[in-house]
Every structure is written in C-alpha cells, then in structure tokens.
Amino acid sequence: MKKNNFSRRQFVGTVSVGSIAAIASGSIPTFGNISHKMNETANLAILGGEPVIKSKVWPAWPYVDEKMIEEITKTARSGVWCRIQSATGTVATFEKEYAKLMGTKFALGTGSGTQALNTCVEALGIGPGDEVITSPYTDMGTISSIITSRALPVMADLDPESFQLDPREVERRITQNTKAIMPIHIMGQPCNMERIMAIAKKHNLRVIEDACQAHLGVYQGKVLGTIGDVGCFSFQTSKTISCGEGGGIIGNNEELMEKCYTVQNHGTSRKGRSETIGAKYRMNEFEGAILLAQLAGAKERFALRNKNAAYLTSKLKNFPGLTPQKLYEGTESGSFYLYTMTYHKEHFNNATRDQFLKALSAEGISMSGYIANGLHKEPWVDHIVNLKVYQKMYSPARLKQYLDELACPKCDQVCADMVMLWASGPLLGTQEDMDDIIKAIMKVYDNRDKLNKI
Questions:
Q1: Bridge partner list, 232
Q2: In terms of domains, do 273 and 357 share one?
Q3: Does the reported pTM lie above 0.70?
Q4: What is the CATH number of the domain that holds 22?
Q5: 159 to each of 41, 225, 327, 411, how far by Cα in Å?
Q6: Cα 156 to Cα 376: distance, rounded to the nearest angstrom
Q7: pLDDT of residue 15
Q8: Please, which of 51, 199, 362, 420 could form a disulfide with 46 given CB 3.0 to 4.6 Å?
C-alpha cells in the first residue's frame, strides 16, 4: 500500500476477460494509459479534456412499477387508509410478510426509522437517568430516538477502517447507568456484532440494532436486526426498501414486541386499554401498500447490489488511492445502501478530497462525503446539558465528564477522508456501469499531478 503507482500489470490482473478484450480494441481507457487513444484525451475534463463518461444515467430510485401504482390506487379506493381500520389491511399484511422475509416471529410498522428506534427505547423502559452507548457517525435520528426519552446518548469512537463502532470504545464508556447499546450498521454493512453482543452479555445490557440502512444484510448466518433484542429499519425514500417515510421493528420476543406495539399506538394496547406513555407512531396503509408491492423483488435487487459492490471492491484491490469499507469477518452480505471508501490524499499528490471529488464529477461520476461532522460536534449536545431535566437527572459531575469525553478523533478522521457512492440506485446498474466508475477514478489518479490546479 506504500507504492504511489498502480501499475498496468496490477490492473490487467484484476479485470475481466471481456474488459481485457475491450482494452485491446482501444474502446475503453485503462488505468495505466496503455492505449494511444486514451493518451489523446487524457487531460482532466475539469481542466478542458473530454470526460470519461458523458450524460451518465443510473437506474432510477426509488423503485416504481405498475404493481405498486395498482396497490396505491386500490388502497385509495378502499377508504381503508389507517391501520386501525382493518386487521387484514396493507400494514398488517406487510408486517407478516416482512417478518417472513427477515426470518423473525414478529414485525411492526412505524412512521419512520427514528420512530422505530424510540419505540424500542420506550418499550425497554429506558428514560431519564439512563445511558445508551451509540455511534457519533450516524443520522440524527439515532440520537433523537434516545434524547426524545430524555436518556443520555453516550458516543463511542469508531474503527476508522470499517466506519463502525469500535467495541473496545463501547466497553470503555460503560457506567453504572448504562442500560443499552445501540450499534448502527452504517452504510448497510454489519457492525462487529460478535464483540458487541459479548460486551452486552458481560454487562447485562440490552441491544437495539439500528439497522435502518441495512435491509437483508447477513452476519454470521443471522439477518441484521435479529441479533440484538430488537432490530429497527427505515423505509425512507433513499433506503433500499422504501416508501417515502416509514420504519419497522423486528424481533422474536413476543412480550417485548407487544410493548413496542403499545408504545407506537400512543400507549394503547391491542386490547384497547390505555396503558403506558407512547407517541402515535403508526405506519399508514399507503406506506404498507408501497412496501408490499416491492417485497417480491427486494432479494433480487439486494443480490445485484452485493454483486456489483464485490466487483468494485475487486477492481480496487491493492489500489493505494482508495480503500473500500472494511467488512468484518462473518459478514456474508450487506445492503450496500452506500458504497464507501477511504480517500488517501498522499496517493493523489496530496490533493484534497474536495479536489478529487470535483475532478471525478467532471469525468461523469459523482461521489461525495457523507456525514460532514460527527454528531459529537453538533449543537444538540449543549442544548441537552442545559435542559432542566438533564441537570436534574444527571449530576453536574456526570455532565462535565460527558462533555470532557466527547472527543471522537477516529470519527473526525472518517468524516474528513471518506468518499461514497450513493448506491440504492447506482448499484443496480450493469457491470459496464461499474467499469465506468473505475475508469473515471483511474483517469483522475493518472492525472493526480494536475489536481492542485482545480
């Protein structure tokens, strides 16, 4: 990984037979500027050259087909728009089918992934005075699900190669008030759940899997979301199973899942009794209809994303400029909601990530960073420590310690160095589409000495 040059020999050793034939014909440029045809147009597009890919069109997302439109129309005409109108409506049916798909006894629909997470926090009795350990590298919905219940989100630093929670940091953050761990399967790939579950067992903690990005991923033979006490999913528009907004909870503990039902039904149980504290987090029938209509092809799309992700990773093997997200041993598949890599500027003539991304975009492939700042650096932290409820439920010494221990330097490193391809649509493309990504990256790499002119 210390060599600056990714040689022609290394490239030829990784491409397919079909790609080699295309190179020989001069029809596609290569990593090593082999062909004369490529040398003629090798100048970066952002500096006046011809782009590698013109007018790139990716597979559309969210997924829409005629069956989905028919189901929405059918639901609209039925007049059954709310889940409590029918025990056999689209939401109830979706819950049964989603449980089958995920291999659990129970599933519960909610209005969003954030609502799913908060439902589980409430159902597990976590509230003021309690602490939940989670990652700073996530959507604010994760944190919101904890602070909505006035518990304290304690952030542990990351493994900078996987972008996931570092189990060693998790264990270091446990206090007498810790009640749960909320690992995030970020980008849709599995956390190190073997270590996290061992830590939870050792310290008698509950585990709420934030699998909002991780539909259908498998770790050590188990579907993500089925490893902890409960698993939560998002069906927001960009997710690999989507309905605009929407969320879901899966689990095998009937008593706990019934508590989740009661919480999301504004504290009212299936028996119609008003029993506990709970917001109205119900999924509606239109969301259920959209989700039901796309479940049949979900596994096929999931398999294609995994195939294309593996292809991209094989092409980047031993390439020093970009390192794909590390997958833990035991990872059998991931949702690949995002395809992510670490950018190594030292192998791009010390050009900034922004310069690299601008040059890549001009070549026809758009990538970006993901989370600009870890959530340990956002204003909500100062907001909650100054709230009366937090000052009442947590001692001044604990709140001072909380602020003193907010530093997450590995998370900061990931925020600065990570680049991603939003993958829900693009990873449904062809192998030729994946080759286009590699060609654009390698053209920028071949011209890395010019990046500082951008």
A1: 210, 249
A2: no
A3: yes
A4: 3.90.1150.10
A5: 40, 21, 11, 8
A6: 10
A7: 36
A8: 362
